[in-house]
Design goal:
Length: 175
Amino acid sequence: MRKEDCFLLGKISRKYSFKGEIIARFDVDQIEAYKELESVFLEIRGELVPFFIEKIALLPKGVRIKLEDINDELEADRIIGANIYLHESMLPEKSESELFLHEIIGFDVKDTKSGFLGKLSSVIEGVQDVLEVEHPSGKFIYIPWVDEVIVMGIDREKKTIETECPEGLVELYLV
């Protein structure tokens, strides 16, 4: 399976039991859409390896998963920290106005004052999501994802994100 045909679903954070169960954190808005998963791909040594799911349970702060062929603590230890991927065909349905964050990686980011800022390299999710933009100079610009900054919006056809960054924000990262 090619990574380009998949999206990052989450990451294995820790083991759960001596029987090989693990806890994963899914980086999605609608975690319930993934409660019936039958299989996932784990990134192991840079390759996507398929695993069938024997059991999955949604938890308040994660997902408890029992993977086929992971039967004890030692085997579970080997996959802790692995990224979890799904094929794009497994994405849940969305409306025209919704988007998945992985869809905008690689978009050109333009600012109303500073012009072309670079390519979106990632979205750092947290209490406040942040756009990580790789400037042509090789430096990174970090832009908070808030309505006051993402003014003009996102154009899927042109693959652009239009921003209006606060005074001095761009310059802060380019000195």
